[in-house]
Amino acid sequence: MKGKVYNYGRQSIDEEDVQAVVDVLRGDWLTQGPMIPAFEKALGSLLGAPHCTVTSNGTASLHLIALGLGWRKTDIVITSPITFVASANCIVYAGATPDFADIDERSYTIDPEKVEERILFHKRNGRTVRAVIGVDYAGHPCDWEALAALAGKYDLQLVNDHCHAIGSSYGGDPHFAARYADAVNISFHPVKHITTGEGGAIVTRHEWLDEKVKLLRNHGLTKDPAQMGSHDGPWYYEMIDLGYNYRITDFQCALGIRQLAKLDRFVERRKMIAAEYDRAFAGDFRVRIPEVKEGCLHSYHLYPARVQFKKLGLTRSQLFEALKSRGIVGQVHYIPIHLQPYYRKLLGTKAGDYPVGEQFYEEEISLPCYPTLESAEVGFIVNSIREVLVTA
Ligand SMILES: *Cc1c(COP(=O)(O)O)cnc(C)c1O
Q1: Whose CA is nearest to atom 14 of ligand 1?
Q2: Looking at ligand 1, which residue's alpha carbon is closest to its atom 7?
Q3: Which of 118, 169, 208, 333 could cross-link 174 (Cys pair, CB 3.0–4.6 Å)?
Q4: pLDDT, tens digit, for every residue of 46-93?
């Protein structure tokens, strides 16, 4: 363990993965080839949904979802303040207005009661909330039953920013994401459950949405005679919407297919690591372990521990420095989005607006959690944290 560096997350790549990529590199199709639909098919069946579009990254997926769902200037879209900035940025990309609803104290996911408060607030001001982006934070599903009830009551679209949570389940259902949400996005960044280097996907039960995001992924170009105004010959295509190049390559998808086959093992290992941290810190007033709500299966993209810094007379910077000297690189997920300078300026948000999320931010540190982390290494990390807390 000496000399090794432990980040909060990292990829697990084996020789089989390397070979799968090399095989594609030696073939005819580096991009726009057969690996794309093959990966899409595998992801669709993982999430139990008929449609999937793979993209260049999870942020591109969110952008395409925002455009595909037709968000525009007069729309408000609500998300959690405790998520990666991309969850909110996609709303701005589409020209709509983001708003936030505070998190639930137990699951750290968006609180449906707070969502309803925001909807009613905007209603009183004559504005419409069009959609909610729930984030299955750290791998813990949102309260999708309650969000679906709100969607029915107020005619909302639901998006699941599912980047942390493939491999999780809700009410015993591993296919909950695409069942509750109109669109689900996934990322294959190296810290996520499975990786393609950079990469993302959109999974949906709606055929119309899938057609739209596939068109926009490729510049808004079509060769489908049914969609074109004229047909000049075999070379002919038409640009029928303003799209982007958000494609992913075939060699990345070949890696994704191999990685996907190992997802169950990866998630099992993450759950074992989480259980080791749970056992180490359960009943220790200094470190609050993440809860798992009844009926939920947590897939632990992150292990968000809450350290009671105030009670300990220790600062988070002191803990970070002490751990870093032992090779343990903590990370905080996340700095509340409404406190980012860009959003303060855009929306006029400020400290105190979302107190549950802000308090969470004050205490959170994500402990290393990834499949290749060994039990002895988890023990070393636990002991290191205890040593620092004891001397505090
Ligand atoms: C990783 C992540 C994204 C963005 O994915 P990229 O592939 O890095 O663009 C969006 N939302 C959440 C919650 C994420 O964790």
Answers
A1: 163
A2: 58
A3: 169
A4: 999 999 999 999 999 999 999 999 999 999 999 999 999 999 999 999
Q: State residue 380's pLDDT score.
A: 97
* Residue 135 CB–ligand 1 contact under 6 Å: yes
pLDDT digits (tens, 9 = 90+) for 268-278: 999 999 999 99
Structure pTM? Answer: 0.97
CA 203 – CA 259 distance, rounded (Å): 18
Question: What per-residue confidence (pLDDT) applies to 8?
Answer: 94
Give the gyration radius of the chain's Cα atoms: 22
SS (H, E, C) 359-383: HHHHHEEEECCCCCCCHHHHHHHHH
**Quick one: 246 and 270 in the same domain?**
no
* 296-297/303-307 β-pairing: unpaired
Structure tokens at 322: 């002490």
Angle between helices 263-281 and 250-261 (to 10 degrees): 60
Through-space distance between the first and last CA atoms of the chain, rounded to whole angstroms: 24
- CATH no. for residue 90? 3.40.640.10
Before 334, cis peptide (omega within 30)? yes
**Residue 4 counted as domain residue:** no
> In testing the pocket of ligand 1, which one of 80, 83, 84 has its CB within 8 Å of the most ligand atoms?
84
Whether pLDDT at 170 is above 80: yes
Residue 10 lies in a domain: no
Residue 200 Cβ contacting ligand 1 at under 6 Å: yes
User: Is residue 111 in a domain?
Assistant: yes
Q: Are residues 51 and 123 in the same domain?
A: yes
Query: Among 80, 189, 196, 333, which residue has the most ligand 1 atoms within 8 Å of its CB, making it the best to mutate?
Result: 189
378 occurs within a structural domain: yes
Residue nearest to atom 5 of ligand 1 (CA): 58
